[in-house]
Each structure stands twice: as C-alpha cells, then as structure tokens.
Amino acid sequence: MSTIIDSGRVAEHNAKLQANLEADYAALGGMLQRRGVDIETLTAQAQTFAVALPSWGVGTGGTRFARFPGCGEPRNVFEKLDDCAVIHQLTSVTPGVSLHFPWDKTSDPVALRQQAESHGLYFDAVNSNTFQDQQDQAHSYKYGSLTSQNAATRAQAVAHNIECIELGRALGSKALTVWVGDGANFPGQHNLRGALERYLDSARGIYAALPPDWLMFIEHKLFEPAFYATTIADWGTSFACAQNLGDKAKCLVDLGHHAPNTNIEMIVARLAQFGKLGGFHFNDSKYGDDDLDSGSINPFQLFLVFNELADAAAREGAAFKPAYMLDQSHNVTDPIESLMNSAVEVQRAFVQANLVDRSALRQHQEANDALESAQALKHAYRTDVGAILAMARFRSGGAIDPVACYRAIGYRARTAEARPAKAGASGSGIV
Ligand code: LRH
Ligand code: MN
What we know:
This protein is an alpha/beta fold. About 50% of the residues lie in helices and about 10% in strands. The chain contains 15 helices and eleven strands. Strands 4-5-7-9-10-11 form a six-stranded parallel β-sheet. It has a three-stranded parallel β-sheet with strand order 1-2-3, covered by helices on one side. Strand 1 (about 55), helix 3 and strand 2 form a beta-alpha-beta unit. The longest helix has 28 residues, at about 5-35. The two termini are about 30 Å apart. Bound molecules: 6-deoxy-beta-L-fructofuranose and manganese (II) ion.
C-alpha cells in the first residue's frame, strides 16, 4: 500500500508518545479489570471500527452567506482522495470514501479506483444530487426533482440517479444515498399527498435499476432548502417509502436533520427493530442542519445512538451492519483535522457503548430501577477510553495523536504549495 505521508515520520511521532500511551493503557486496563472488563477485547473491537469520509468534506465548507476557503484546497476528486488517504493513514478508522455526483464525476473511474486501492481505500455509498441545476441541464429542479410536477424533470432526476449507480458500480460501491430537498415554502403550494406519490413513482424507477447486491438509502430531512413542507421530512415518511419500495431500500439517519431535542436514538432503535436502518451521516448541531464536527456539541447523544446500535448488534449479530459515514461542513477549521477528530469521536462512542454492562442494565430495567439503569449507561459514557482508541490506532499503524502528527508533518503547507488557489474560489455553499 502506498502512503501519502512518509510512514517513518509517523513512527517518529509515535516513538515519542509510546511510553505514555502504554502507561495510560495499563492503568485503564487495571481499572477495567476491576470492573470485570478485558481491555484487549475493547481494543480489538475498536480496531474493527470504520466510518466513511464525505468527499465533499475535505474542502472548506461554507454557508449561504459565504465560504472562506483555506489554503491547499483539493481541486478535484483525485486530490480529495489524497486527503482522505492522509486521514485514514493517521487515524486508521476511515478506509471508506463516500462520493457525491456530479461534484466527483471523473472521466477515468478506473484510475480513481486504482488510486483508492493503492491507499487502502474503498468507495462507500455514492450520493446523487438533484438539489442543484447543472450547467447544461434541460429541466430545472427549482420546483422539485423526483417530485416535480413536470414528468420530464422527474425522468431527468431518475436518469441522474441511475447514472450515479453506474458510476458507483465502476468504483466498487454497493449503495446509493438519495437525499432530495424537494418541498414547498407555502401552505397550498403542494398537494402534500400528490408530491409523495410522485416521489414514490420516481423512486421506483431508481429502485428498479439497483443491482441485486446494492442498497438504496433514503435520507430524510426536516427542512432546508424547503421551509414549509419537505417531502421526505422525517423517519416515518422515509420508513414508509422504504417499506413500499422493497428490501433493498433502507433509511439513512443524518443526525442534523431533525427538530431540536428529537430523540434520535429512539429513531435508531425503531428503524433497527423493523430492519430498515441502512446507515448514518454523523455530524453534530445546536440549532439546524449545522453539519458541525461529530461529538462537538452533544457527545452524549452520539453515545446514546451507539448504545442502541450495540443493543441491536447484540440481538442480530454480525449481520447487523449499518453504513457509517460522516457528513460535515468545515467552515473554520482545517477539514482534515476536523475529519480526523470526528472519526475518532464516533469511534469513541462505539467503544463506550461496548463498555455498557448489558446484562446488569437489563436487570435494572426489569427491576424498574430507573436510577441504576441510567447509571449503567453513564458509567460507560464517563469512562475515558482515549488510551484504547490511541492503542488501536498505534497497533493498526496509525498515529497515536493524529492531529499533532499531521501538524508536525506540515501536510497542509505542502498542499498549499502544490495546489495554488483557484481564482474566485470563495463564494458560498459547500464544495
Ligand atoms: C443534505 C445532506 C445530504 C448531502 C448533502 C451534502 O443536507 O445532508 O446528505 O447530499 O448534505
Ligand atoms: Mn447528509
């Protein structure tokens, strides 16, 4: 496997931190042993964890107001892949990359696949885009795509999704994520049932084009860009559509796509119970779809989501494999640093959830001992598993401290040299 960063520099970095890591690891191991927990089991589990990177997240993001690009921005999908390779090399938990079309469209998918494989990367779910009009597009999506009143516009949107499947097949992907911003800004603008009927009719066209071993992820979102009614606004609508379409249709939960204070972990439990939990877009938010770094605002919620995933895995075993992906916008940080940190925060929630004593929890629940039930979760959540995450990285060839190693190596300065900024690169929005 070829690496973007000289692995000798990573070893140099680790050599300075190894002794402290082993001391912290031994101390944590001792403490967990007294709790009847074998630290090696948790570390081995941590080494199996993987969360995919959003190709659109390695460039600086923005809002409708402005985007302030950083230096060394990736200018095409090949450079985005290089940055993803750096993140995986240092964290060892991000082998998958989720592409977005047409932003990542390439005339040479074979070369792209070879580059990915040369860095030990693979392509996770691909994303279609019928929320923007492309240069030479025949029909505008201003009034919707899969739900458009105009049959030719719907057909165009279905054709785009089928093209995404073809591109994904060439890259080895096995799933298509369909998020549409379709909706209304005024009461009365849409016949609400009619819009969903048109959505389902179009989605059946996409579903019919899925290869036998592919999945289609329906991503719900409460609002934005529509601000009165969004056609696929919540998990209930997404679930009903996935049920209606068939076994290859599943629901994707983007943590930022819910009203404030929504009990997202309960949505996860429900979708898992009915076999329709396809995957996640992890991020964090305070108000709307803020796309902030995972675990940066409400890490306890992230833990509670993974607690439900651990419960489902305990029930369904290895067959339970939702797709884990990040979907974030990095407006004020180095995207590579934010993605490394976020991947580790998601892995942290996974390990903490595996630390929950499920049999004790069940006993407390069956005894209606609300306090001890809550404490059983808090006990795991309050455990600092940092040494397990660092040891998992170290043993998998990653960096003990990815951000410190990345800064010491000066990769960003290198890309700033190699990738002169594109004129007029500012502007707004993502990518
Ligand atoms: C919509 C969304 C969707 C992507 C886009 C980049 O808000 O979460 O997953 O297509 O962000
Ligand atoms: Mn998303």
